[in-house]
Amino acid sequence: MIDITKDGKVIPALAQVGKSGFMFILNRETGQPVFGVEERPVPKSDVPGETSATTQPFPVAPRPLAPQSLTAENAWGFSETDRTWCREEITKLRSEGVFTPPSVRGSVLIPGNIGGMAWGGAAYDPAHHLLILPTNNLATEVRLIPRADFDSTRQSAGRELNGDWEFARQEGTPFGMMRRFLRSPGGSPCNAPPWGMLNAVDADTGDIRWTVPLGDYVIAFTLPN
Questions:
Q1: 82: closest CA among 185, 218, 203, 211?
Q2: How far apart, in Å, do the first and last CA atoms of the chain sit?
Q3: Are 135 and 197 in contact (CB under 8 A)?
Q4: Of 191, 185, 131, nearest to 161 (Cα)?
Q5: Which residue range(s) make up the domain with 134?
Q6: Total of domains in the chain
């Protein structure tokens, strides 16, 4: 909870941050957005029997604090081999920006399942009216697995599917789930660095005051010759 000054008036406010990489700054007495919120169209689910929301709320300010899209054209990698693998993998997947739903085909989630916003949360500097928060930038690949195929898919993952997959049965639903960080077999992330950032948001204006790379990320990879 913070107090901000806008148009010469002090507004009792709160800042809400989440895994989408968005920060919503609201009047804490009325719930109204201080800098505006827009409902924008988002990608639809193509999973049989599933209906997803047609829009999601986007803050007008601050701007997103983490990358919101990853396409084959801007795939990254330590080497050309890594970049080629990443481009080809992304081409196979749904990659329509933030809020791309999980799918049987496979979807790129960016921000990935760990964020957006890092688990540590945000801090407030009242002397400078700055909200300080860390974000993660790593993209994730997620696939839904029809219930009848879950066990066989999990058994074959080590032999036929590259990468370190995490599986969840999602009991009581028609689909299980598998996901991984979107990295080449050599360990290179498919989205460009930095993979973590520390951001400062001006609470009075919603502007990003500064952004710097943050953190250590240990990756097992093979350097090109």
A1: 185
A2: 52
A3: yes
A4: 185
A5: 2-213
A6: 1
